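Design review, sub-item: ligand-bound model
Attendees: FS, YL, KQ
YL presented the inputs for the magnesium ion complex:
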Amino acid sequence: MLDSLRSIVQEVNTADHLQSVLDITVARVQDTMGTEVCSIYLRESTQGRYVFSATEGLNKEFVGKISMAPTEGLVGQVAAREEPLNLENAESHPQFLFMPGIGEERYSAFLGVPIIHQRNVLGVLVIQQQTRRRFDEDDEAFLVTVSAQLAGVIAHAQATGLLVALDDSGERQGSARFRGVAGAPGIAIGHAIVVAPTADLNSVPMRRSKDIQDELDFFHECLEAVREDIKALGRKLATRLAKEERALFDVYLSMLADDALAAEVDVHILQGEWAQGALSKVILKHVRTFEMMEDAYLKERATDVKDLGRRVLSYLQAANSGPVDYPERTVLVGEELTASMLGEVPPENLVGLISVRGSSNSHVAILARSMGIPTVMGAVDLPYTQIEGSEIILDGYNGHVYFNPSAELQHRFQTIYEEELQFSKELEALKDEPCVTTDDYRLPLWVNTGLQADIARSLDRGAEGVGLFRTEVPFLLRERFPSEEEQRKIYRDQLEAFAPMPVTMRTLDVGGDKSLPYFPIEEDNPFLGWRGIRVTLDHPEIFLVQVRAMMKANAGLGNLRIMLPMISSVPELEEALELIYRAHDELVEELDFELELPLIGVMVEVPAAVYQARQFAKRVGFLSVGSNDLTQYLLAVDRNNARVADIYQTFHPAVLQALQHVVNDGHAEGRKVSICGELAGEPGAAVLLMAMGYDVLSMNATTLPKVKSVIRNISMKKAKEMLAHVMTLENAAEIREYMEQSIQESSSQRLAKAMMVDSAH
Ligand code: PEP
Ligand code: MG
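KQ shared the predicted structure:
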């Protein structure tokens, strides 16, 4: 059964448009299950009717022509109940709807299963048979499995089909909306520029070529270069390989001949596609075909075709690798955007980001928020390779992407964009005002930094210190570990810019979703693996150089604080402290002058640390909660996975309890406790954290003025009442709603309006 399932899914994956996905599915399911009929009814988007969309066994002439209302017939029943319906005699069921013409009347036995993608019913998959019988449990289980596997493929094909249809219509008759996860707030209206990792056949954007003949010549040049490489490789290995193995190189060369795969690529190039797109289409099609073969030898050829395809693609990409032309109002789109990809776009041209993978607490989203670039993460159904150059609107508040927006939609979003711009200008006036409640409670607001550009942005917005300098960001933008002197300069810039305000530098926190290109960490469970302090304790040479550079940079300034990430036990903390003391002693000896030992703190970001906060506090100068990780580990929800974004709940009662626990324990040891996770930048959460007793809130510079405005409009007394009430509530959605409502009531009208846009997600 598993083999049949795999082969159905693989075959469906070879289809290049929705109708063939459906046709292949019904044909293969009918054949594999040995039934007389297999059909698919797909839900259309306007009225939610179920359209008879593909069949094997019923009258094909009616495909696309008849449909039933959402609650009509057995199909409607399956869809509404979202569960299989297995009937021996369909006609006797009260919901049965006779549809003349399609030829259903002969079939008694009926088994229908819903096709569900991301909680949405896309349609219904049905098998039928003449003999009166109930399909057995195996049939039911198999059909459910097929349907679950195909749902994603159908959703993707629907999305791609929609884009192609809109493109072909030429008249911009409608727009398509894709849902993702809100990554960074704001509206962007611009043009999609797709970035692809090198030599990845699956993520090549589709573009038109500039000149067909040039493109053809270029493709054949690259092909010839690969042929030469293969010949050279064959010669090099000639003495070490058996005769049959050497013959493989001839097979490769024949595949690369001008009249083989290349001829198919030529056809696409002649139709105006650029060589990379044409190549990836042809190669992927053949790879899928080979993968579907029964014969093990032929199946293996899929690997060869893919390898050859990648080699040609590398040549095509290398020749095209000059600086990409990023036009004004670029919306950068990619399967998995990284910090270095952002770095390549001139900042004045970058208006938005869309990442197909990742979620709102992925590090790229955090960077985007600190840079104030509207971002949508986890747009998993967006056929991103097809949207190069298209006009799009990105709604970073709600996590939506609009393709080919209508004039009316553009106007609507342009208005929101202008209102936001105006509002942030108004907030600028708060820059030099203190963050103080209406009953005179003073709450310091610090910033999180990483990029060089964060310095100016933070000072502009009136930051009173740095609560988290993510030192890994400058590490990410390089091709090797920065030397001690390079690091000293980077740290000195930060310390000098903010002096005498405190700057909290976190020691290197790589692993998880932050992997250095020159120090890759590949693990099955990266967030539970070699991360943060675990890496640097295993590599004291990296850790010592870093803390030496920090302390040297602090000479004569004295505003450095060092913070340790991902500490989960006392011995780990003591080991790290020993190393810092050692580095300090060595430096004092080396430099021959008194060098102050900076204040050292621990990040509380794993559940174990919550319950050891007191033991940690005894040993260090301060605690700082990393709520991004603490939330993911407490709730067991990957911060980087869009599929579970809905249950990454920052206002979860368990998270709030943990936050209160940490601040109480830190204070019991007389230590200051701050928070530097993204939570501090959410106005509602900021109020609660203040009421819990947090001494400092550290957030990205973009949200700082908004938080300041909220705190300045509320009293500590009121904040404490809100906290007391929230602590009695039992679910995150209820808490969020209560906080949003209370804050809107206490804020200025302007802010309340802005917050309503913010909280629309
Ligand atoms: C956190 O985990 O909350 C934190 C501030 O660190 P990072 O987001 O860099 O993991
Ligand atoms: Mg963290």
